[in-house]
Design brief:
Elements: E1 47-48, E2 55-59, E3 86-87, E4 89-92, E5 107-113, E6 124-132, E7 135-140, E8 145-150, E9 154-161, E10 164-172, E11 190-196, E12 199-206, E13 209-217, E14 224-229, E15 232-233, E16 239-242, E17 253-261, E18 265-274, H1 278-288, H2 296-312, E19 315-318, H3 322-335, E20 340-341, E21 356-357, H4 362-376, H5 378-395, H6 419-429, H7 436-446, H8 452-458, H9 465-483, H10 487-497, H11 531-537, H12 541-552, H13 570-577, H14 594-597, H15 601-614, H16 631-640, E22 643-646, E23 651-654, E24 661-666, E25 669-676, E26 694-700, E27 703-704, E28 709-711, H17 712-717, E29 719-726
Helix pairs in contact: 3-16, 4-5, 4-6, 4-16, 5-6, 5-7, 6-9, 7-9, 9-10
Region (Disordered): 734-759
GO biological process, one term: carbohydrate metabolic process
Keywords: Hydrolase
């Protein structure tokens, strides 16, 4: 594989998704899709390490990452709360692309100032912003140039001052959260200590997490360092301790370095973080900067750039317009920001081993992002699975979402049994390092948590989408049980897995119910483990295709999108369409590939082409909706490669790629994607007049591939996929469908041993 190291990396634009969606008017099929949810990516341009514990960015307090100009929004375009891009300082541990969770981190705010300490909290205008993977910079309107970079568990700030008789760098240990109603986070306990010679350390307990920092700086000898409380210096004091803080008694507190600065003088602040105390925070900084902290900024920046370049080199694409390459590269970048891996950092169990947090939107991430992470880094994929099992051991259940906060069960209303899909895929891929017998115990026990108890007794539960979740969870658990030789248990689990059918009514759609951020139409086309039976229940291929065609708006007129609230009648009109939400909302992100199971991969090609052309763009407004921790961006990566993972089934559906070819390194092996007949097309206005391309034939490792799928083992095992494209639909993949649980093909073993099937 030729990598051209960094080629994709150079196309990344971290500012994409930081403003409301600003996409050229859609044409054709995409013009009929209607977007109800927040029309903003909710990303930030801050410095991030791939899958690292720490990020750093300018903080205005805006929703939801702390960066930007906009307030909280759940529907339509968000309203600005600031006229300009502002910052009161630079914070750490930002979310990426999430929504509808009111509290976020933004801890340990660092503010360079030439103003008195009383001005702390002022929001200065940001100028000359710049960002690339692992680096963010901006100039405050007071003339201070600010640069940030991060390692896995570290952050380094570099500030270049104008001439000042009293310059300062202020660290606020009390700050956290967002500048919206109920958005602040108040520390419960805290302690900090000035160690002299530019060093300090401290710990704050935020949302049940003890978060520690060790600080080293290269401040000039003439500068003083001291602690402060309530915006007043504590002269002669070297430490502050707070045993119990209430919201009503909180006063800002922290550490400060101050002294005269000549024009162009730089000050470097190096920070190591840990959830296991200040000693480990110091060791984390020392490990990132072996041999001493001197010139820490450039060293950490270079190290992080190299890690980003290593990931980027695993996904090289051929051709593509500059705009399409920028969107693709940035999508890959956004896909690798979360979740956060913090080896040996769990604050809840003392042993060494993996700890993963910021799985904030697992109900989206499990479909697209987790398969991409596991493909690019199987070792980290296995660590994530082990971390999920450890959470179950310590907290009593497999998480539905997991933030850097005590308690993993806060997201149980969104979905059920999602970790089961990831574990089933990991087991079938043969990921190493897990005790699968023990994982199976937790998978089985977890099926009865939350809504699972009612499902186990009645075979149906409301919200009705949880019926599908739990049925899939039983199926995935059966895969592991059968693989471990417990066939009796597997038979029992598979019997429960067939209860997915109870969720559907006679019209081929889900029964009326309540739904989390969606409706019964966009939850009705999930890729179930028994799509053959699901299509039969809907009336067969033609009837199922007709329902899908209506959902995707084939033949429908263009619609009007929502603007800024409050809305007029357009909201009710849009809801009544029961239409595909165009990647603005993720419950239906796999729906385009449902056509594959009805023998219509040509329809998949048409829908995916329209989405890639009109739902993503360059510039700050280049995302149609919340990126949801990278799930949406991962969708774009897979769709552009002509592949789509079917979560929990160790299966990848094949479609027409958006690029002429690709060189991939998945599962540690080289995978080459080659096309003939590919026709280049642009995005947005440049896509006008372009049409979908269709697979005419395919070959895998030199053998004909007459069906539209590969197993995960084939993809991870490496090889060569050759696809012939053409301007008209063909009969490719129309006869042999992707496998379903009710199939009687002996090679598939009822779907439970799909990994053994080879073309």
């Amino acid at each position: 594989m030729t990598s051209n190291l960094g080629r994709i990396l150079d196309s990344v634009d971290p500012f994409i998704g930081t403003e409301p969606a600003d996409l050229p008017a859609a044409q054709g099929l995409a013009a009929s899709w209607w977007w109800p949810k927040a029309q903003v990516g909710n990303t930030h341009p801050g410095a991030c390490h791939p899958l690292g514990m720490v990020s750093a960015c300018a903080c205005s307090g805006a929703y939801p990452t702390g960066y930007g100009r906009y307030g909280m929004s759940t529907e339509g375009a968000p309203a600005p709360i600031y006229d300009d891009y502002l910052a009161s300082g630079f914070t750490h541990f930002q979310q990426s692309g999430t929504g509808a969770i009111r509290k976020y981190y933004n801890y340990f705010r660092v503010t360079p100032m030439i103003e008195p300490l009383d001005a702390l909290g002022t929001r200065w205008k940001l100028e000359d912003e710049a960002a690339e993977p692992g680096y963010y910079a901006a100039t405050l309107e007071n003339g201070i140039r600010c640069e940030l970079t991060v390692g896995e568990k570290t952050a380094v700030h570099r500030y270049t001052f104008p001439e000042s008789s009293s310059a300062r760098v202020v660290l606020d240990f009390s700050y956290g959260g967002l500048a919206i109603e109920h958005g602040t986070t108040v520390p419960l306990r805290a302690g900090l200590e000035s160690l002299g010679q530019g060093c300090a350390q401290g710990t704050v307990v935020m949302e049940g997490i003890p978060l520690s920092v060790y600080i080293d700086s290269d401040t000039p000898k003439a500068w003083r360092q001291l602690v402060w409380y309530d915006r007043r210096r504590v002269d002669g004091g070297t430490r502050l301790d707070f045993d119990y803080i209430r919201r009503t008694t909180l006063r800002p507190f922290g550490l400060m370095f101050m002294g005269p600065a000549r024009a162009g003088q730089t000050v470097e602040i190096r920070m190591g973080f840990s959830m296991r105390g200040t000693d480990q925070a110091r060791r984390n900084l020392e490990q990132a900067l072996p041999g001493g902290f001197e010139n820490g900024f450039e060293r950490v920046r270079a190290q992080t750039h190299d890690v980003w370049a290593g990931y980027a080199a695993q996904v090289e694409v051929d051709g593509g317009t500059p705009e399409r390459r920028t969107v693709f590269a940035t999508s890959l970048y956004h896909s690798l920001i979360k979740p956060c891996f913090a080896e040996d950092e769990s604050p809840f169990w003392p042993s060494k081993g993996p700890f993963v947090f910021d799985i904030a939107t697992m109900w989206d991430m499990y479909k697209t992002q987790f398969p991409l992470l596991t493909a690019l880094d199987p070792v980290k994929g296995a660590s994530m699975l082990e971390s999920l099992v450890r959470i179950a051991e310590e907290e009593g259940n497999l998480p539905i979402g997991y933030r850097m906060a005590r308690g993993s069960d806060r997201f149980f209303r969104q979905a059920s049994a999602l970790a089961h899909t990831v574990l089933a895929d990991g087991y079938q891929l043969g990921l190493e390092g897990l005790e699968w017998d023990w994982a199976l115990v937790h998978m089985q026990d977890d099926l009865r948590r939350g809504y699972g108890e009612d499902f186990a007794e009645r075979g149906i539960v409301h919200p009705i989408s949880h019926t599908l979740d739990l049925a899939s969870g039983y199926w995935c658990t059966a895969i592991v049980a059968r693989g471990l030789g417990d066939h009796r248990l597997a038979d029992e689990l598979e019997a429960k897995a067939r209860n997915w059918a109870n969720a559907f009514g006679g019209d081929g759609l889900l029964r009326d119910s309540s739904f989390y951020e969606g409706g019964r139409w966009n939850y009705s086309f999930r890729l179930l483990h028994d799509m053959a039976a699901r299509i039969k229940l809907a009336g067969g291929d033609k009837a199922f295709t007709a329902i899908l065609d209506r959902f995707f708006g084939f033949g429908a007129v263009p619609v009007t999108q929502l603007g800024v609230p409050p809305f007029g009648p357009e909201f009710a009109i849009g809801q009544d369409l029961n239409r595909f939400e165009g990647l603005n909302n993720e419950p239906d992100m796999e729906a385009p590939w449902a056509y594959h199971y009805a023998g219509r991969p040509d329809r998949t090609a048409e829908v995916v082409h329209a989405a890639l052309a009109y739902q993503f763009g360059t510039g700050r407004g280049g995302l149609p909706g919340n990126d949801d921790s990278g799930a949406l961006s991962s969708w774009y990566v897979w769709a552009s490669l002509g592949l789509f993972p079917v979560a929990g089934q160790n299966l990848f559906l094949v479609n027409a790629p958006a690029f002429g070819g690709a060189s991939l390194r998945f599962g540690g092996n080289d995978f080459e994607l080659v096309t003939t007949g590919h026709v280049e097309s642009g995005i947005g206005e440049d896509a006008a007049g372009s049409t979908a391309q269709y697979v005419q034939s395919a070959r895998f490792n030199g053998k004909p591939l007459d069906h539209g799928f590969l197993t995960g083992n084939q993809l991870h095992g490496g090889g060569r996929l050759e696809i012939e494209l053409g301007p008209e639909p063909s009969d490719w993949a129309t006869k042999m469908r992707p496998p379903s649980a009710s199939d009687r093909h002996p090679e598939w073993g009822g779907g439970a041993r799909l990994q053994e099937f080879l073309p």
